[in-house]
Design brief:
Blueprint lengths: L14 H6 L3 E3 L4 E3 L21 H7 L12 E6 L4 H4 L16 H19 L7 E6 L3 H10 L8 E6 L14 H14 L12 H21 L12 E7 L1 H12 L3 H5 L9 E6 L5 E2 L6 H7 L3 H10 L29
Amino acid sequence: MSGLSSTIAPPSFSFRSQLFHQNVYTTSNSIIRCCDDTARLNIKPHEDNGSASFPEKNLLLNPAAFKKPPRPRRIILVRHGQSEGNVDEAVYSRVADPKVGLTEQGVAEAEECGRKIRKMIEEDGAEDWKVYFYVSPYRRGLETLRNLAKAFERSRIAGVREEPRLREQDFGNFQNEEQMKIEKAVRARYGRFFYRFPNGESAADVYDRITGFRETLRTDIDIGRFQPPGKQSPNMNLVLVSHGLTLRVFLMRWYKWTVEQFEGLHNFGNGKMVVMERGYGGRYSLLMHHSQEELKKFGLTDEMLIDQEWQTIAKPGELNYDCLITGPSYFTHFDDDSRK
């Protein structure tokens, strides 16, 4: 017996689905209706359909009435502390990259970074501040997070999400140490952004997965996923614990830097941070926390700094039509007088 002629619901139908759906099963002698009398069973229907727990439903069901939550105060990018691989690259020939852990110095660097983050946040003078973490699943990332978080009470930590897209660039098979030295030398000649390691990734590949993560992050910010509805504060601080190249690519993607500008950037130090802070108009700017001198050492050009100045006053959704990064710098060969 099959289909509607069976007296027994198919195994894929749970009791709950039978309870709330008016499916009808017939036999030669009777008709059996699944019960939808929730009051009799003392079951209260969810009138908000879960919108209190899932704020994105409010946005989808009633976008006009949806009130955007305040944007987090900062997005703090943290490179993991010193790892065993930072001290001796031969480690990668014996230990898989995701399993390489921190050294004692790396643990100390992570703890110090946590204290610095807390000090920076407390200087705001706000009482209701919290932190929310996104972390690479690699061991050195997780160990950095756990030691960094020692600076915070549990009540100050709004949540943690392990995010595989924040993992390190995949360098392929590191078993042959000498071959990896050759590959890195080739990359230096070829270009750091486009060179793909055999069986691994290029920075361009990392850019693609970071693009997906950026969209997730922007959605999280737009719907205020970090705190329950009604308890959302502008003093939330997001902390991304990841790897040097991954974080540089994140900044490149966020600020729309060119490949040439990316290749001019220097790596973060182990256990160091770069801070994107909410500006006067609501966008995130590196100049809200860092000085121009610091950013020049990191590798930002004058054109990039001018754009960061605009970021300090601009509103979300606005475009910088005079941005030297995305416009005029491509057309310096034009003779302006000829177009008069």
